[in-house]
Design a protein that fits this description.
The protein is α+β, with helices and mostly antiparallel strands and about 325 residues long. It has two domains: about 130 residues, 2,3-Dihydroxybiphenyl 1,2-Dioxygenase, domain 1 (Roll), CATH 3.10.180; about 130 residues, 2,3-Dihydroxybiphenyl 1,2-Dioxygenase, domain 1 (Roll), CATH 3.10.180.10. Helices cover about 20% and strands about 30% of the residues. The strands form two sheets. Strands 2-3-4-1-5-8-7-6 form an eight-stranded mixed β-sheet. It has an eight-stranded mixed β-sheet with strand order 10-11-12-9-13-16-15-14, with helices on both faces. The longest helix is centred in the middle third of the chain and has 13 residues. The protein starts with 17 loop residues before the first strand and ends with a helix.
Length: about 325
C-alpha cells in the first residue's frame, strides 16, 4: 500500500480542481442501476457488461458516481493481482475510489514527476476519456487523479455498453503534455422527470479516518487540498475550484471508511415530500437536517451505503461543531 510518510519536506500537491466522482463496490448491478435512476434521479451514462460496472451523471461530467460488483472485482483481481490492494478490499459494499479532476494533463504529468521524486509509485492508466494516476492513502483508500483528454465525453459515454480501455499506454512527459481544459465550466444539467430526487452533481464525501492526522497530511501534502475549516476532530478540505470536497473525521470507535457521499440537488427541491415518498417505498431515511449551511436528507442505498441529497446554504459550520459522534458526521 502506498501511504503518506510522517513528514514530507517537499509536498507532492496534485492539486485537483474538485471531486469528479465517487466509485463504489456494490452487490448487484441491476438493483443499483434501478435505485440510482428511479429513486436518486441519475442518468446512466455507460455500462461495462463484462465487468458489471456502470456510470451515472446528469451532465455535470461523464460520471458523478460509478460502481463495480464485488463478485466481479474479486474475479478481476484473481486474474490480475495488484500487490498494492489492501487485504479484503472489494470484498463487501464500500468505497472503491475517489476520482479527483485535474485542470489538465500538464498539471497531472508535473504532479506525477513530483510523486516519483518523493518515492511514491502512482499507477498510470489511459481509459479512453481520461489519463490517470492512482495512489492509496494511509487508511487504504484509493485515489484517482485524472485529466480528461476529451471535452465531448458523450461520444464515449453514450448510455450503452462502453469500452474504456485503449491498447495505447500513457507515459507522462513522453510527449509535451496538453494544457487543454477538457471540462465544461457551465455544463448542461439534465433533470429527471420520473425520480423521487433530482441531483445536479456530486460535491463531497465524509470519511471516517482510522489514522486521522496521517490522512490530513496525505490530503494536504500529497493530494494538495486546502483546509477550508477545522474542528476538534474533523477537517473540511477543498480543491482549486470547489467549496469543499471532503470532510475527514476521526473514526474513534466507529469503523473507518466512507460515511456518506453528498449530492447537491436543485434549489427548489422539496426534500420533505421526497422523504415521504422514500419511506412509502420502504427506503430508509437516516436523517433530515435544516442547518445553516444546508437543508438535507440522508438515505441508505440497497448496499447499506449512505447518500446525502442537499440544498446548499451560505451559513457556517456551527451546527457541526455542536453535534457529536455519528450526528456530527451526518450534519457535516
Amino acid at each position: 500500500m502506498t501511504a503518506a510518510p510522517a513528514q514530507r519536506s517537499t509536498p507532492v500537491a496534485y492539486r485537483p480542481r474538485r471531486l469528479g466522482h465517487i466509485n463504489l463496490f456494490v452487490l448487484d448491478t441491476y438493483v443499483m442501476k434501478e435505485f440510482l435512476t428511479q429513486v436518486c434521479g441519475f442518468e446512466m451514462t455507460g455500462i461495462i457488461s463484462k465487468t458489471r460496472s456502470a456510470f451515472f451523471s446528469n451532465g455535470n461530467t461523464h460520471h458523478d458516481i460509478g460502481f463495480i460488483e464485488t463478485a466481479s472485482y474479486k474475479e478481476f483481481r484473481r486474474k490480475y493481482p495488484d500487490p498494492n490492494d489492501p487485504p479484503g478490499r472489494g470484498d463487501k459494499p464500500a468505497l472503491n475510489h475517489f476520482g479527483w479532476e485535474m485542470e489538465h494533463e500538464a498539471d497531472l504529468a508535473a504532479a506525477y514527476e513530483r510523486a516519483k521524486s518523493a518515492g511514491l509509485k502512482p499507477r498510470i492508466t489511459n481509459n479512453g476519456t481520461s489519463l490517470s494516476n492512482y495512489l492509496f492513502d494511509p487508511d487504504g483508500g484509493q485515489h484517482q487523479f485524472y485529466a480528461d483528454d476529451t471535452l465531448d465525453w458523450r461520444t464515449v459515454y453514450t448510455g450503452a455498453d462502453v469500452d474504456l480501455h485503449r491498447p495505447a499506454t500513457w507515459v507522462p512527459g513522453a510527449q509535451p503534455p496538453s494544457t487543454a481544459r477538457n471540462y465544461d465550466p457551465n455544463p448542461t444539467i439534465r433533470r429527471s422527470t420520473t425520480s423521487i430526487l433530482h441531483p445536479m452533481r456530486v460535491t463531497h464525501a465524509v470519511l471516517l479516518c482510522a489514522h486521522h492526522e496521517a490522512m490530513v497530511r496525505f490530503y494536504t501534502e500529497i493530494a494538495g487540498f486546502d483546509v477550508v475549516h477545522r474542528g476538534a476532530d474533523y477537517v473540511y478540505l477543498g480543491g482549486s475550484a470547489s467549496h469543499y470536497d471532503i470532510v475527514l473525521m476521526a473514526a474513534g470507535a466507529r469503523a473507518p471508511g466512507l460515511h456518506h457521499a453528498a449530492f447537491e440537488v436543485w434549489p427548489d427541491e422539496d426534500l420533505a415530500t421526497a422523504a415521504k415518498a422514500l419511506r412509502a417505498r420502504n427506503i430508509e431515511v437516516v436523517a433530515e437536517h435544516d442547518l445553516a449551511h444546508k437543508r438535507s436528507l440522508t438515505l441508505r442505498d440497497p448496499n447499506g451505503i449512505l447518500f446525502e441529497f442537499y440544498v446548499r446554504r451560505t451559513g457556517g459550520f456551527a451546527d457541526v461543531a455542536r453535534a457529536t459522534g455519528d450526528a456530527r458526521a451526518l450534519a457535516a
